[in-house]
Specification:
By secondary structure, this protein is mainly alpha-helical. Helices cover 77% and strands 0% of the residues. It starts with a helix and ends with a helix. Mean pLDDT is 85; it is low at 6-32.
Amino acid sequence: MKLAKLFRNLTACSLSLWLIGCSNQTETTSTDFNRSEAVKARVNLAVAYLEQNDFPKAKENIDKALIHDPSDYLPYSVLAYYYQQIGDTLNATQTYQKAIEFSQSQNKDKLARPDVLNNYGAFLCKQGKFDQAYQQFDLALKSSLPYYHQADTLENIILCAHQAKNVDKKIEALQNLEKLDEERAKNLKGILIN
């Protein structure tokens, strides 16, 4: 639920940026081809198709992104989400782990990207693997890499703790969320604490 909302919001922003980037491009020759931009464009299309539950077109764009760069973490992250959406938990698990590995290899500090850790944590929570999910969320929050979605991760912890009936974890995460986004924490309290 939360991951879908996160991807929906991410898609809207990413798609907007992608479209702006496309409209600002000047003439491009074949020598100007940028693999990274091609991967991002295909990933954005795949996420948009996932939002529409058009799984064949989503998979087609993920596959094309992987052809452009088979070592980029981003297509694997979206592929994992694709597998999650079609109910293939084994491939989703393996692909999330591959996305984490590639995200580590793509940064000089060899740290996994917090957004990938957060998404994997949300997936694990949906599988009822609460302790493993909390570990991924904690790694995301403690990462020394730039991460501007701590509130999303805290919200995922709250939702996961609610599902696990872990009151202490839920209250702790709510208190931390209040420091970042008081209104969001207030809304969650109203929904989850009765």
